[in-house]
Amino acid sequence: MSRAAALREHEETSSDDSIVVLREASWKDYERLLEMRGDHSAPRISYLEGEVEIMSPSKDHEVIKSYIGHLLEAWCVDRDIHFRPAGSWTLKREENQSGAEPDECYLFGPEPRETPQLAIEVEWTRGGEIYRRLGVEEVWYWHKGVIEIYVLTEGAFTRAERSRVLPDLDVELLASMLDRDSLTQAVRDFRKALDASA
Question: What is the DSSP code string of 18-73?
Answer without folding.
Answer: EEEEE-S--HHHHHHHHHHHTT-S-SEEEEETTEEEEEE--HHHHHHHHHHHHHHH
